[in-house]
Amino acid sequence: MSGHFVADSSVLLGRSLRHITRSLDTIITTTVTPIAMLLLFTYVFGGAINSGSESYVTYLLPGILLITIASGIAYTAFRLFLDMKGGIFERFQSMPIARSAVLWAHVLTSVIANLISVAVVVLVAFAMGFRTSAGPLAWLAVLGILVLFTLALTWIAVIPGLTAKSADGASAFSYPLIFLPFVSSAFVPTGTMPGPVRAFAEHQPVTSIVNTIRDLFAERPVGAGIWTALAWCVGILAVAYFFANVIYRRKIS
């Protein structure tokens, strides 16, 4: 990675972050929705759901964190779409800027913004009774998984950001991603689901990621589950990164 790329990415990252600070409603919106879901499921539905020996808010939090990220990446696609339609990309092409730095600035902005939203949600969960015996290494492992998950979804978001015909179309892709945790172990144990739904829930990426984070928070052995979670994140990231860059090169050629 050249110094030229790092310097250009840093400058463009600063630009993207300034845009967020001027429209804090972006972070507020992506934080309020998962917090509302956390409150709703904990205080309305939580009493009817058997989550085992742990409190329901503790059981629920890992899934809510993934929903927080899935909600936040819609704004990455939206901001990228606005840059495409606003002619910023053409302007950058006339300047001595590393081409890949433009995309990486948006991606890193997404990571920073989503981590802020995740931190707020975790603080609210603590206020609601979330408790964990996780030590520093377990927290670092959770952070690493969330960052990797954010990178994977953000590179997916880059694709509609580059190809969408409208602003609504750029962000609408995130709806299936937000829905996916509902058919996983995020809200209820998969063992309570009917056969076909259970089979899907147990073999989709959200379940392995949620279960791994849940085990890390409880300081339980993660076993092979963590490798399944990492394989999903890395695999999605690699595929999305490849196609996003192919589309980007075609757009600027």
In short:
The chain is mainly α. The protein has helices spanning 3-22, 25-45, 56-85, 88-93, 99-128, 136-163, 167-172, 174-179, 195-202, 205-218, 225-252.
Helix content: over 70%
Helical stretch tally = 11
Q: Average pLDDT across residues? A: 84
Give the total of domains. 1
Alpha-carbon distance between the termini? 22 Å
Dominant shape:
globular
* Share in β-strands: under 5%
Keywords: Antibiotic resistance, Cell membrane, Membrane, Transmembrane, Transmembrane helix, Transport
Protein name: Transport permease protein
Domain ABC transmembrane type-2: 25-251
Family: Belongs to the ABC-2 integral membrane protein family.
Protein architecture, described:
By secondary structure, the chain is mainly alpha-helical. The protein has one domain (4-252). Helix content is 78%, strand content 0%. α2 (25-45) packs parallel to α5 (99-128) and α3 (56-85) packs across α10 (205-218).
